[in-house]
Structure formats: structure tokens, C-alpha cells
Amino acid sequence: MTSRGTLNGRTALVTGGSRGIGAVTALRLAQEGADVAVTYVRGKDAAEEVVRAVEALGRRAVALRADSADAEEAAGAVDRAAEALGRLDVLVNNAATGLMGPLEDMSLADVDQLLAVNVRGVFLTSQAAAAVMTSGGRIITVGSCVTQRVPGPGATLYAMSKSAVIGLTKALARELGGRGITANAVHPGPIDTDMNPADGPYAPAQAAMTALGRFGTAAEVASLVAHLAGPEAAYVTGAEFSVDGGHAA
């Protein structure tokens, strides 16, 4: 990809940026000129690989250990990123956890864990980012195709958690619009990652649910995130975008 430099002089934090969509998004933002911080929980080596790849592009990068399930660490990652990079212009709320299974099997601990990461953590990082961002700031949250269409049983808890970020996104748009800060959500469909590979045992059924009949790539999600982070999306806020191959069609 040839960079247009749309993010030159900008800084970004990608939570859960050590692998999958987060890692590819961090690199895409760097290709567009941004300095990038990524958070991780257990993937220190993978996060440091992302840092080296960003630095190879001539951009600054830092890996921060921060567990989105921990309220203090979730919010603190924003301040640490801003301190390391000198400011914060773009927040990509990518860190999430997934748990699928029958409704009756979901324990209180499951509910608390999923909501802590997928909802509370996203709220706290967004709140902290809003406190340090200036006009032109961007908050982009990675949701899920199950917020648009739940194709079968077993996703109740996960779909609930991801649906919460839609309300958060729209409210943030209203809350922060007067300051020139936008908030948008991106809903990936089945995406080829190490956690959900396109050649995995459940892949054929997932691909069949899309209009295109295939998995998407992390790069296809990252390209939309990069656009929303850039100047051409300055009038886009409070919106939801599906990158799902027609999963919701």
C-alpha cells in the first residue's frame, strides 16, 4: 500500500494491538504517518514485534501492558500513551473478549468478565481519551457483525456487550461533537485471524452467512479504520460501518 500521509504528525492508541485486527490496524495507521501505541495483556513478544514493524516505517511506537478488564489499567493506558507519544489524536477501541455458548451456561463470572472488557473498558478508555484529545480527535470502536444480525443461538452475552458500544458511540458523538472530536463504530464480520482462521472448523458455516461467501481480512477492516481516523472523515460521526461481506444483508 502506498501511504498518502493522511495521519502525518498524528498519534494513535490501538488497544489489543498485539495481534489480529489490532496489529494490522496499528501498522496501517503507521503507514499513513501516525505514531502508534498498542496495548497487550499476555502477548508481549507479539506487541514488541508490532512496535518494531512500526519503527521500520519511520514512526515512533510503544507497547504498553494494560488489561482492559482492570478499570485502572484501561483508563491509565490512555495517559501512558499520550505521555509516551506527546499527545493523543486517535483512539481505536479494539481490545475485546469473546465467549459463545448456551444462555443457561453463562455464569455471573462470565457476564462480569465480558462486560468489564467489552463495555466498561471501552467506556473508560474513551472517557480518558476525551480528556486529552483536542479538536480533530477520533474515537473508533471495533464492534461486531452480531450487532446487526445474530444468525444463531449461543451469542447472547457477546452480542449484548458489543451492542452496548453502539449506544456509547452515538452518545460520544453528541457529547464531543462541539469540540471537533468524532466517534464511530466499525463492525467486522468473519475475519481471518489466528483466533478465527478462514480454514478453521467453523469457517465454512461462517463464510456461508456472508453475501460474498468468504472471510474478510484484517487489512480490509484496518483500511476503514484508517479512513475514519483521517481528515477526509471529519464530518462522519455517530455512525456504524459494517465490514462483514454482507453478513447483515
TrEMBL record:
SUPFAM superfamilies per record: NAD(P)-binding Rossmann-fold domains
Domain Ketoreductase: 10-194
Gene3D superfamilies reported in the protein's UniProt record: NAD(P)-binding Rossmann-like Domain (3.40.50.720)
Annotated SMART domains: PKS_KR
Superkingdom of the source species: Bacteria
InterPro entries cross-referenced by the UniProt entry: KR_dom, NAD(P)-bd_dom_sf, SDR_fam
Pfam families xrefs: adh_short_C2
Family as reported in the entry's similarity comment: Belongs to the short-chain dehydrogenases/reductases (SDR) family.
Protein name: SDR family oxidoreductase
